[in-house]
């Protein structure tokens, strides 16, 4: 049975797509081992792959990033935060990743390693000296293309293309600002016997034997200077949920869709949701007076309670006119719905809102007319998969760059902030609902995605290198 290693940085947004890839390779008859964080062991085994934990120095809990990487707590979104990620989260974890990968290859001699492009522990495998054949490395682009280009603005600034001269100037400035991080990363890899072939961000694309960007060309800035190893594979379909039992409020959701009442889904994703006051609460407040049904998926069992606490004054009794109590379900289940109709701006969950814990996107988005999100790559592509236009408010990690692509492609509106005002959310949502150009743009992206079969592309490359 052909052996394949799947490797993922222990971040939810990186692990989830690689889990789908591992599951597909298992279904095709491959013997798959997945090297990633220990907290994902159960999800890995559920795919049929064997789980191999990263060593402690590379295994962190992405739900507690500032505990593992304290500088993230004070780093400003944008280049400063990107520098912390590049140095500490990605480069400094590469030695542990590489040692684990090398040890795994000794006992599990795979013909290919399929890794997310920021699992930098694959770099020594490609760049270092090695006797005898080595497995092919297939890099999967689970974030926007990071390589610098004369045709596009540099990664991390959340900018849209603006002209070659401007791009070259921005690239030079970005390289200068990144120089201390680049020097640090070069030393890390030199100690592993691997010389970086240039800028770290360029290397994420150029080092893998095959680089597959998990989107369509229509959602990525055109570039004329990418290596021959680069290709678009199309977005992975959203994972199918299992065992989902619709909550009590599901009839209200399906009824709204049937009656033609617009449904607005609001989410801060599965990780950047520690402070629901950044986007969920402003969206609920801004849309309270509109003839829409708002479904806030907090992805936290305690999310509904936190939202209510943020909206209802601490000294206001439950049941204040215009306020609603929350019907709490079992931990981990969708939990709450507003029911009392109150005027816009009244304390409490607005009467046009449902506030829930975790709700699978594959069940929820088919009802949505707009997705308000902080802009994770997987969530945005899930919206495209279902033909749902977007309003994006995100500035951390890669979210500003994703939001810029949403705007550039016409798929929605980029609010260019991670903490919008309620009126800004309301105006953007109502604009998207009233402007068919956004829905048509998403339809074009959806049609483009259907021309690709990323699982087949990955399997074909893997089989060619076995």
How far apart the termini lie comes to 11 Å
* Strand ordering within the main sheet: 3-2-1-4-5-6-7
The percentage of residues in β strands lies in 5-15%
Q: Can you tell me the number of structural domains?
A: 2
CATH class of the largest domain: Alpha Beta
Give the low-confidence spans.
Answer: 314-347
Overall SS class: alpha/beta
Please provide the count of β strands: 14
Helix tally equals 17
Radius of gyration (Å): 22 Å
**Average of pLDDT:** 91
CATH topology title of the largest domain: Rossmann fold
CATH architecture of the largest domain: 3-Layer(aba) Sandwich
Corresponding CATH superfamily of the largest domain: Glycogen Phosphorylase B
Shape descriptor reads globular
Oligomer: single chain
Biggest sheet features: 7 strands, parallel
Helix content: 25-40%
Structural summary, described in words:
With 466 residues, the protein is α/β, with parallel strands linked by helices. The protein has 2 domains: 3-239 and 453-464, Glycogen Phosphorylase B (Rossmann fold); 250-449, 3-Layer(aba) Sandwich (Rossmann fold), CATH 3.40.50.2000. The protein is 39% helix and 13% strand. It is built from 17 helices and 14 strands. It has helices spanning 12-27, 41-46, 65-68, 79-91, 94-107, 123-127, 164-190, 200-206, 250-259, 280-286, 303-311, 361-364, 377-385, 399-409, 422-434, 436-449, 454-464, and strands at 3-7, 31-36, 50-53, 112-116, 136-141, 210-213, 230-232, 263-267, 293-297, 336-337, 353-356, 370-373, 390-392, 412-414. The strands form 2 sheets. Strands 3-2-1-4-5-6-7 form a 7-stranded parallel β-sheet, sandwiched between helices. A 7-stranded mixed β-sheet has the order 10-11-9-8-12-13-14, with helices on both faces. Helix 6 links the parallel strand 4 (112-116) and strand 5. Helix 4 runs parallel beside helix 7 and helix 10 (280-286) crosses helix 15 (422-434). The protein starts with a strand and ends with a helix. The relative contact order is 0.12. Residues 314-347 have low confidence and may be disordered. GO terms for molecular function: hexosyltransferase activity; UDP-glycosyltransferase activity. This is UDP:flavonoid glycosyltransferase YjiC, YdhE family.
